[in-house]
Each structure stands twice: as C-alpha cells, then as structure tokens.
Amino acid sequence: MNKETTSTIEWSDVLRRYGTVIGALLIFVIFSLTTDSFCTSRNLLMLLRQMSMLTIIAFGFTFVMAAGGFDMSIGNSAGLVSVIFAIVLMNTSNFWLSLLVALGVGLIVGLINAVLVAYIGLPDFIGTFAVGSIAYGVKMLVTKGNPVFFTSPPAVFTFIGQGYVGPIPFPVILMLIFLVITVFVLNRTKLGRRIYAIGGNTTASLYAGIKVKWYRMITFLLSGLSVSIAAVIMTSRLNSGQPLAGENFLLDVIAVVFLSTTMFGEGEPTARGSFVGALIISMLNNGLTMLNVPYYFQYITKGLVVISAVMLAVVLGQKLRVKF
Amino acid sequence: MPLDDLNNKREVLCTNCLGKEFNGVWVLNDININLKKGEVHSIVGENGAGKSTCIKILSGVHSPSEGEIIFNGEKVTFNNVKDSEKSGIRTVHQEINLIPFFNVLENIFLGTEVEKKFIGINVLDREKMAEKARKVLKRLGVKIDLFEYIYKLDVSLQRIIQISKVLVHNPEVIIFDEPTTALAESERKRLLEIILDLKKQDLGIIFVSHNLEEVMQISDRITVFRDGGNMGTILKKDATIEKVVSKMIGHKSYSDFKRESLTGSGKNIFEVKNLSTNKLKNINFKVNEGEVIGIAGVMGAGKTEIAKAIFGLDSVESGEFYINSKEYTPNPSKSVDEGIALVPEERQEQGLVLNMDVKKNITLSYLEQWSRASVINLEQEKGIAKKMINHLKIKTTGPSQTVKFLSGGNQQKVVVGRWLTGNFSLGIFDEPTKGIDVKAKEDIYHQIDELAKKGKGILFMSSYLPELMIIADKIIVLRDGKIVDEFNPKNNTEKEIMIAMLGGDQK
Asked: Is B216 within the bounds of a domain?
C-alpha cells in the first residue's frame, strides 16, 4: 500500500519534469512513422538548420523571461535588422561592417526596451510591444515594403546562412555555440544567478543588494543581440533583406519559452528547456509540412501543443513564472 | 459612564471561553468578553497578544477551536464572514479596502448593489442606493458628494466611507480595527466623535487601537489581552494608562537569553542626521561598535521606514548618512558594498527567493566571494552553505533543498546566514523574530549577540518590547514617524517604555 503511493507520486513527478520531453520524443516517433523522409539524416540536418534561428532568438528570450520579463519586439526587430543589414551590405559590400551595424541595431532595440521597461517602469508587454510596432514602421519606411536584393554578395555572407562545416550546416554550429554559452551563463555565472533571483523574487533581489534594473537591462540587450544574429543568418539564407520575414518568430518563440518553463519541473525557463522547446516547434513545422498539412493547421497544432504542455504542468502542480 | 448605566444596557454579544489553535499552538485561550448595546468596548494588547485573532473569530474569518459566541442571547456559529455579517456584526478594517477609481456610491454598495427591473432586465437602482447612502451619511453627520472618486478624498473621509459601507447594512455591532491609523490629529478627533455618536445610536462597538489615549477617551470598558489570554476588563472610571499598561506587560519569562557582549570601544559605525521622508520626521541617531540599538514602536510607527531609508529602498526628503565615518547615499547595492546588511521584515516577500534552494539564497548578496571572473565556484558555494547550515542549525535536507519547504524560523535563519557570509559593519534586523518559534528566536538573539561581540553595529527593530529589553543596549522609541524618547533597558522599566510607545505622555 505504502509502496504504491510512493510510486504514484514518482510517476506524476516524472510526468511533471519530463512530460514535455516525452512529448518531443512522441512527436519525433509519430513523424518518423507517418512519413518516409522525416527520419533521414538529410531532413534532420535540414530541421536543425531551420530551427537554428528560432533557437538563437529563444535563448535571448530565455534570459529576459528568466528575469521575469517579456519581449514582444523580437519579430519586428528581426525584420528591421535584416533589412538594415542588407542595405549596408548592398551599399558597402563590406560584410564585417554590415555585421557590426546589424548587431548595433539589435542592441539599440534592446537598449530602448530596457530603458522603457526596466528603468522607466512601463509594463514589459506594453513597452516592448510598442517598440516592436516602431521597428515595423521603420523597416517599412526604409524599404517601402520591398525586399533588398544583392548582386554579388561576399562569400562569407553566403556562408553564414548556407555554408557547411563538414556535413553540419554552419547555422547549426552557431546554434550549438549559443546553447553552450546560454547553459553556462545561466547556470554557472553571477549574471545567470542574479537573473534567476530577479525573476524569482524581484523585491527580495533588491533587498539583497542586487542591481535589479541593471541586470534586467542586460537581459534585453542579450535578447536584442540574439535577434541580430538570427536576423543575419536569415538574411543570408534568403539571400536578401526581407522586411516581412521574421514576423513568425514572435509566436514561435513565445511557444518555445512557454514550453521551456514547463520542462524539468523548475517552473522557470532554462537553456536546455528552450532547446527542446524549439525542437518541438520546429519538428511540428517540418513534419506537418511534410504531411502536406496546410499552414493554418500548423498554427492550430502549435497552439494545442502549447496549451497541453502548460496545462499538464499546471495540473501537476507546477507554478509557472510569467509576469506581465 | 457610571456603572449602573452600563448595567441597564442589554447585552448584544458575548463570548464563552473562546480559544483558537493554529498548528498545535494556542494563540487564544479562554476568552470571555461581553458587549452591550450603546457601549464602546476597547480591546488592547501588544502585537501578538491575540486581538486580531479574536476579532477574526467574531467576524467569521476564523472559526473558534473552543468556546462559543452568543449573539442576542442565542448561540451562533459563523462558518464564514457572510454568516457573521448576516447576524449583524460588521468590521471596519485597518486597511482601507476601497476602489480608488470608483465613486463614493459605487464603493458603499460594492458587492451589495441594489437592483430594479427595467423592461424585465435587472439594472442598478441608483436612486434607491443614493437615498440609502444619504441617510447613512446623515447619520454620520458628514456631507460628501456621492459621485466623487475615492482617490480624490483624504484618508479620514475614506475611513468614513468605509464606515458608511458598513452602516448601510444596519449592523448591531461594529468592530473598529485600528481605525485612526494614518490620521492626523484633527481627523482622529473627528473620527472618534463619529464613533461616540454611533454609540449613542445604541450600537455595540468593539474598538481596537494601539493608541491608549484615544482608548481612554472613548471607551466604556477596556479589556486587556496578553499572550492570548484575557487579563481582565476595566471600567473606564477605574482605568488609567498606567493600570492598563501594567496589565499588558509582565509576560511569562519566555526566554532565558542573556547578552554576553558588552558595549564596545565606542567607535562610531553608523550615524544618520536629520532623516525625513514622507513617513519620518527628523530622525537622528548613532550606532557604535558592538552596540545593539533597539528601535521600538507600535505597528506603523515608522520602524521599517527607517530601515528602508538607511538601505536605500525608499526615497528620502532629507538626511545625511555615515557609515564608518564616511558619508554615503543610500542605494541597495551600494549600501551592501558600504557594509550594510538588512534582514527585512517580510522574509518571504522581501528576504527570500522562495523557489531557489538554500545555498543560492545564502550566497545571493556576496556572490563575488565564490566567483572568479564572474563564474561561480559551485563547490565553494556548497561549502559555505553547509557551514551556515551547521552554524545556524538550519533544519533542512541540505544546501539543495528549495527554501520554500523550510519552516518560518529556518527560512529566517537562511536570510541571516546570507549576511553572515560577508563582512558587514551595520546589521539591520527588522522584526527578525516575527512569527518564528521560541527556539529559533533564541538562536537569532545569540547570533546578534555574537555579531555585537565581533564589533558590528546592530539596529534591531521590534514592536515586541520584551525582546528589546533583553537584547538592546539602548532603546529608541518611535511614534508617528518621530523619535519620542530614548531609554536604557537596564535603568528603565518596560512599563515606562511601553507608555512612551503607546502615547501616554502626550496630552
């Protein structure tokens, strides 16, 4: 009798901790069985390449959300970085200068978010949403809504999004580097510890002498930085600056980070959780396309997956950390 | 009020051996009080004496573990607040729970809106509500525009709206819980007059206040609580502040703790000059090496505000701050760098990140010590956490246990342990023993003693005088944001200090 109760407790604990991971495996198995080409090394490498941008942005977002914040500007700022990067590259043909400008734009967007939200005190949702709206306007203003094409882009530019190192696509390597850095920073450094403390209890962090505003600002800068890098990869992949590209990132990244908070029973977003979350969303994008499911059903599916993951976590007694 | 007069009045509410137990601890024991119509019956006592528990039982928030409530001669059972309200007992709470952007009328009828049928649909009956509200305001003798927003009214008018909200239901008994908090002198007077007026309208009134002067002014009888028990009821004509206070103090000796450290070299650690904020007025004091300065005062006297101002959590209107003879501008992270440690009043809200583990909470403030190039040395971190767990006798499964699963006393020790890992000069302890068990309390006293022995300056805020008497070298008494007096616990008695806290010396 006694034994039985302990074993049920363990089961719900396993489900709470690894439910989403089990879900990811399930999705993998289902697509492998229902399609011929899903579980091939060629497709899996492509899947990893597709997910790299989403994952990199999600890592930036993970920092923001670990500190209890939210960043609604990512989708539009990705497009903004992309077109400004493309315009500078088109006019100067200097990749490194363009890269610097792209990173600068991302950081400026992050800085504006940080000033509005962390220092002036606007609610995260409203402040970053408005910044995203301004970013949308600016990129349309700059491009009149037209894509920016290149005549002869430098080789290094093409390599960033389309190159391979051995069999591995270069964006995948970038993503893995980001994964390692994010895991390390969040778990092993003062920065990561303080970010989690602020997200866990902002007041107590302040009372412990932590520079709350400063650290919150850093999270928004990291988010801006990760958006820039993803946008550069995207520009290279599309071989053009696309003002409307990147808008889907917002919804997908939110889904990823919510999935992340449900994972490993910690109730807060983690680097590995965001990685698995991005894998789930990307597998859905990839597998459902392969099954010829219309794109609108893909959205419905993604919505349902997020709802079930969060519901499972809440039902199993996990407190999710989401503050707006 | 003459005795006979009171005897002629009908009893409306009475309790019979009321007791309340939380988790095996009896916080209220054998309480017998009775209230008559047309009487103001005051309940006084220190923080934690059981006043609020008693009120919460009468208003149906808690149900008694023992004893019964008799209302109008009948035994009643309140399962919730609604039950108590239905029988005619209403409470005017200490916190003003009105909605700022609703108008007076909407607030008075919040949750009890009057409706009428309009083409078969229920709509609000504004005329009826306005009529009722006007009647009540007339009873209170105040004129307020019913359509004024609450946020535009001052605190005393907001109180009056709170009272109106209670009065529209025609209660027989009104409980006032610290109704004069945050009121200026003239507003206080006005409110007391209103309460006396209600008494004349034959209501039974239970009045709870920290301010003994106003208690003396308006009560017919005064009941004193101490340590969860009823210490006796005094008729107004027999009551003096002295008499009431001596019933309030004189606790069972609850701790054998004795300070070992002696006042240190006299080297100054901390000084504040002319500190004023919106709550504090012209605060000056010093803390020397090895000294424990107690700051006494009832709830809301401004103790926490002093802690917050020194640490840099509240904005300051004026004031100079010196730590180790060096002037500094308070700001939390800078204050920590300058050597100030703060154990805040609310350990769960302000002290701990509840879903982090013990070690992470312990190392939160002085993380640099276990980090090289911003990378935390997890082994060293675990080591220091283990050391603190042993040193403070924290009951936990280990450094990796999530702190929310610890008991209150052990949680408090984690907060204290956090500061012990660093080398601060001034330690501020704001109500550090609030809500923790006796054993944990003594552990905290010993820690403070040890810190003083090491030459640190300690600021100990408490509304519980007995603990200040045993721990402090000097007790500064705060009332309404001002320092009113200073005592030496060796030469002055608890009674003298208590009278200063409760406002006995001012007329």
From this structure: yes
CB-based contact, A204 to chain B, within 8 Å: yes
Please report, in tens digits, the pLDDT of each residue of chain A (324 residues total): 344 444 455 676 777 677 778 888 999 999 999 888 888 888 899 999 999 999 999 999 999 999 999 999 999 999 999 999 999 999 988 999 999 999 999 999 999 999 999 999 999 999 999 999 999 999 999 999 889 988 788 899 999 999 999 889 999 999 999 999 999 999 999 999 999 999 999 999 999 999 999 999 999 999 999 999 999 999 999 999 988 888 888 888 988 988 888 777 667 888 988 999 999 999 998 999 888 888 888 889 888 888 887 787 777 666 655 544
Under an 8 A CB cutoff, do B349 and A204 touch?
A: yes
Give the minimum alpha-carbon distance from A181 to chain B in angstroms, rounded to a whole number: 12
B452 lies in some domain: yes
CB-defined contacts A:B, below 8 A: 73
Contact with chain B for residue A213, Cβ under 8 A = no
HEC secondary structure over A100-116: HHHHHHHHHHHHHHHHH
Residues B326 and B450 in one domain: yes
Domain enclosing residue B396, as ranges: 342-417
Which of B363, B367, B430 to mutate to test binding with chain A, by most A CBs within 10 Å of its CB? B367
Per-10-residue mean pLDDT for chain B, 507 residues long? Answer: 66 90 84 92 85 90 91 91 91 88 92 85 89 90 90 88 92 91 80 91 91 89 90 88 82 67 77 92 92 89 92 93 93 94 92 92 90 88 93 90 88 94 93 82 90 92 88 92 90 87 63
CB contact under 8 A, A210 and B333: yes
Instruction: Choose the CATH number for A30-315 among 1.10.3470, 1.10.8, 1.25.40, 3.40.50.
Output: 1.10.3470
| Same domain? B492 vs B437 | yes
Write the ipTM: 0.84
**Over the stretch B41-82, which tens digit does the pLDDT of each residue have?**
999 987 778 888 899 999 999 999 999 999 998 999 999 999
Q: Where are the domains of chain A?
A: 30-315
Residue B394 sits at φ, ψ, to 5 deg, of -75, 125
The DSSP result for A37-97, as a single string, is STTSHHHHHHHHHHHHHHHHHHHHHHHHHHTT---TTHHHHHHHHHHHHHHHHHHH--HHH
Asked whether residue B208 falls in the same domain as residue B76, the answer is: yes
Judged by CB atoms closer than 8 Å, whether chains meet at B353 and A209 is answered as no
Q: Are A240 and A147 in contact (CB under 8 A)?
A: yes
Q: Verify whether the Cβ–Cβ distance B374 to A191 is below 8 Å.
A: yes
Cα–Cα distance for residue pair B416/B406, rounded to 1 Å? 14
Whether residues A201 and B353 touch (CB distance < 8 A) is answered with yes
Domain final position from B220, B248, B276? B248
Statement to judge: residues B309 and B349 lie in one domain: no
| B 414-443 residues inside an 8 A Cβ radius of A | 418
Report pLDDT digits (tens) over B453-473: 888 999 999 988 888 988 999
Q: Which of A274, A276, A298, A272 is nearest to A286 (CA)?
A: A298
Beta bridge partners of B70: B14, B75
A323 touches chain B (CB under 8 A): no
**Cβ separation of A207 and B332 shorter than 8 Å?**
yes
Q: In sequence order, what DSSP letters do the residues of A254-266 get, joined into one string?
A: HHHHHHHHHGGG-
B353 with A207: Cβ contact below 8 A: no
Please give the structure tokens belonging to residue B317: 């209107």
Nearest by CB: A208 against B375, B376, B418: B418
